[in-house]
Write a structure and sequence with these properties.
single chain; 409 residues; alpha/beta; Rossmann fold; globular
Length: 409
């Protein structure tokens, strides 16, 4: 197949969940198909990025849009785009150069199928396409924005999240029906999309893990106990998660294990995250390799209260044979079983109890570690990419008429 893959924002470095998922599927697809990545990005022009993405994914086309990226410029841009009916998370990634490039590729039939990676790129596709266009929907965006609005305490941010949630709800409901095929990352997300009234075909391609990188390691001794959370620390759901953990869960762990250490591992920690640092809480910032921290972890935690899609961090830790405690939202969409693969705990007391169980009972912890490693081994990216390719081939075969026009601003 000839595949056009359109993605907003830089794909490198591969340091967020969405990038990890897209990059690994792209690399796997490129081994047996002709893939053209159309990567467009804002901010300052970055020749190093453009040359590196072309090296890693030959044939990639890069467009520099110069869209605002600094917090101040984005705030001004948000205000200017506030009257638009479409959400800012979509309008800020819409650009005339990208629209022309996508339209030209489709009209000239250079590809057999196109992939719109995330809703963010959706308004760059023409109203009608002569080739099938598949929407790769990593999250149910409406749910994500609604949860962020519900949890936010800052009045200004809460209002902006509310506005974005309302706009996203209208936009997402409308756009899903304008693609012939949608790929969701979990059964839960698929069911949510169907509940929104979508009548398009929705296939589920689960998340994966690079089992060659995240390999099983021996059980950590746990003396002193090391609790680890990984994730991009400039993403609101992760910021909320570690604030919640430090405020309502960590004190209970320290009472039983005073020498315990909590490591927050992830790039670009916001000031709110940096303020959490104490003698027992380490905020690492960007690290060369997350695996080094996972290797030494006694327990890995995922205290997410906001989110969507599936959590790559869970399979990465599981592949390394780590016992985990997660909220239900943290493991939402994953084929995991409470009490076998990990401990699911909602509420501070239950979460604290789960951690204390794993720290206090090494034999129980090893049982969870063994089960986690067995489960993750089934989700190597090579298997996931084949399932993704099957959906694209089905779209090509069926050749559904496309109407990918978006809700107009």
């Amino acid at each position: 197949m000839r595949i056009l893959w359109v993605k907003a924002g830089k794909l490198l470095p591969v340091d967020t969940g969405g990038k990890i998922r897209s990059y690994n599927i792209l690399v796997q697809l490129a081994r047996t198909h002709r893939v053209t990545l159309l990567s467009y990005y804002g901010g300052e022009k970055d020749p190093a990025y453009e040359s590196e993405i072309a090296r890693q994914l030959p044939g990639a086309e890069v467009i520099h849009t110069a869209a605002p990226e600094s917090p101040l410029r984005q705030s001004l841009d948000y205000i200017l785009r506030l009257p638009a009916r479409a959400p800012y998370a979509v309008t800020k990634f819409t650009h005339a150069k990208v629209r022309r490039a996508v339209s030209r590729n489709l009209q000239e039939r250079r590809s057999d199928v196109a992939v719109c990676d995330f809703l963010s790129a959706s308004r760059n596709f023409p109203a009608h396409s002569p080739v099938p266009v598949v929407l790769f929907q990593h999250n149910v965006e409406t749910s994500l924005w609604q949860r962020m609005a519900d949890r936010e305490t800052n009045p200004a941010r809460k209002l902006s999240y509310r506005i974005e949630a309302v706009k996203m709800n209208c936009y997402e409901r409308g756009i899903l029906g304008r693609f012939g095929q949608v790929i969701a990352v979990s059964d839960h997300d698929r069911d949510q999309m169907r509940a929104m009234g979508s009548r398009c075909a929705i296939s589920v391609v689960p998340t994966g893990v690079d089992t060659s990188r995240y390999r099983r390691v021996p059980s950590a001794p746990g003396n002193p106990p090391v609790i680890v959370f990984t994730g991009s620390m400039d993403w609101e759901p992760n910021v909320d998660a570690v604030e919640y953990f430090c405020r309502e869960i960590w004190p209970g762990v320290l009472r039983e294990f005073p020498s315990a250490r909590f490591e927050i591992v992830g790039r670009n920690p916001s000031p709110r995250v940096e303020r959490l640092a104490t003698s027992s809480v380490i905020v690492t910032g960007t690290v060369p390799s997350v695996t080094d921290y996972l290797r030494n972890a006694t327990v890995v935690v995922v205290p997410l209260r906001i989110g969507g899609g599936t959590r790559l961090k869970i399979f990465e830790a599981m592949a390394m044979g780590k016992a985990m405690v997660s909220t239900s939202i943290g493991a939402e969409g994953l084929d995991v079983t409470h009490g076998r693969d990990l401990i699911l705990a909602d509420g501070p007391q239950a979460f604290t109890k789960g951690i204390l169980q794993l720290l206090g009972e090494p034999a129980l912890r090893r049982n969870y570690e063994d089960a986690a490693a067995r489960l993750a081994a089934q989700y190597d990216w090579s298997h996931i990419a084949r399932r993704f390719a099957d959906v694209l081939e089905q779209a090509v075969t069926e050749g559904r008429p496309q109407a990918t026009s978006t809700v107009q601003s």
